[in-house]
Amino acid sequence: MKKDIHPKYFDNAKFECVCGNKWIGGSTLESNSLGICSKCHPFYSGTEKILDARGRVDKFKKRQEKTAAKTIAKATAKATPVKPVKRKKAAK
């Protein structure tokens, strides 16, 4: 194995996000400035917004509602008992 080809590793490297969050971790750089972290990323922070210019999300939600309504209608139709039809006996 060649010597002195790997960069120096810093166990106490400082990380700072643009949102102000700071933490210490390992890196080959002594300090890092990040554009986004788990504190401000929409997916992890729960502030995720769906941007939809053509209404695709709304169309999808409407289809889901229709399907759910049909499923409920079928389930209630099967659950309601059907009264047997009384037939008259044929005359001899």
Automatic annotation (TrEMBL):
Molecular function GO labels: structural constituent of ribosome
Annotated region (Disordered), positions in chain: 72-92
Source superkingdom: Bacteria
Keyword Ribonucleoprotein: yes
CC terms in the record's Gene Ontology section: ribonucleoprotein complex; ribosome
Pfam families: Ribosomal_L31 (PF01197)
Compositional bias of kind Low complexity: 72-83
Keyword S-adenosyl-L-methionine: no
GO biological process, one term: translation
Record keywords, A-Z: Ribonucleoprotein, Ribosomal protein
Family: Belongs to the bacterial ribosomal protein bL31 family.
Entry protein name: 50S ribosomal protein L31
Species the sequence originates in: Candidatus Yanofskybacteria bacterium GW2011_GWD2_39_48
